[in-house]
Amino acid sequence: MMERVLIIGTGLIGASTGLALRAAGFGGRIDGWDQSLLELRAALEMGAVDGVAGNQWGALELARQADVIVLAVPVLAIKDWMQQLAAATGPGQLITDVGSTKLEITELACSLFGSENQAAFLAGHPMAGKESGGALLAEASLFQGAMWLFTPASQTPTEMEKEWRSWVGFFGTRTLDMDPKRHDEMCAWVSHLPQMLSTALAALLEEKFGDAPEIAAIGGRALRETTRLGASPYSMWRDVAMTNTAPIAETLLALEQRLGHVRENLRTPELRDEFALANQFRVRR
C-alpha cells in the first residue's frame, strides 16, 4: 500500500501533484525536495508536502523510505536523479516522472531498473500545465480532464505501479499508454511545435515593434492567444529541445515549408483550400 510519497521538484507540476493527492483522499505522508528553497517553502506552506529535505542527500534518504518517488524536475535532471536513485531504492518501490519527453528516459530506465532486486520505474507525462511555472501557481485541479501519458518500460506492472495509476485516475485524468518514440514524435507536433511557434512569433513582434502602443490597441484576443505560450521561460523548454531535437526540427521544417506555401499563394485559390483544410481540423476537435 502506498503510504509515503517523495516529490523531487516542487514547482508547478510537483506541488500540484501533492495537492491533487490530498484532494483525492491520500492520507499518507508526502515529502518534497527542490533546488529552490522558495519553491520548497511555498509547497510546504500550501500543504502540497508535509515535510522537506534540506539538501540532495536528505532527499536520497527520504527516497529510501518512500513507496513512490515522483521526479518533477526538467528532463536532464530526471535522468541524473534516476542514476542516483538506482542505488538508493529497492524492490517494492516505484519511481515515476512527469517529464515532457520520454524516449531517453524510458531507455535509461530499461538499463537501471526492473530486475527483481530493484525498484520499478514508470515513465509518465501529464499533459497539463501553465505558461508560467512555480509552486505558487499550483492547484489540486490542474490535472482534471487532462491526459496523463505513460510509456512503461515493462509489460508487467508491479502492485505499486497499479496503485499509482489508480491515484492518477483519482486526480480526474484520463490515461493512455504509448510507445516512447511515438510519444516524442506526437508531442513534437501537438505540444512542442506550438510552443516554438508562439515563442518565435512573440520574439519577432518584440523585435519589430517593441513597446509600440499600437500593439496593445489593435492586437486583440487573437494575438494574445497566439503568443500566450511565448510567456513560457526558457528553463522550462531547454531540456525538451535538447532531448527531442530531431522530431522538433522535423516539425519546424514542415511548418517553414507550409508557411512558404501560404506566402506563395496569398492571391490564388490555394489559400482558400488551406483555410478549408484548417477549418476541417478544428471541426474534428
TrEMBL record:
Sorted UniProt keywords: Oxidoreductase
Cross-referenced SUPFAM superfamilies: 6-phosphogluconate dehydrogenase C-terminal domain-like, NAD(P)-binding Rossmann-fold domains
Any Pfam family the entry gives: PDH_N
Keyword Oxidoreductase part of the UniProt annotation: yes
Residue stretches making up the Prephenate/arogenate dehydrogenase domain: 3-285
GO biological process: tyrosine biosynthetic process
Entry-linked InterPro entries: 6-PGluconate_DH-like_C_sf (IPR008927), NAD(P)-bd_dom_sf (IPR036291), PDH_C (IPR046825), PDH_N (IPR046826), Preph/Arog_dehydrog (IPR050812), Prephen_DH (IPR003099)
GO molecular-function terms, A-Z: NAD+ binding; prephenate dehydrogenase (NAD+) activity; prephenate dehydrogenase (NADP+) activity
Lineage top rank: taxon: Bacteria
PANTHER family found in the cross-reference section: PREPHENATE DEHYDROGENASE, PREPHENATE DEHYDROGENASE [NADP(+)]
Name listed for the protein in its UniProt record: Prephenate dehydrogenase
Organism whose genome encodes this protein: Edaphobacter modestus
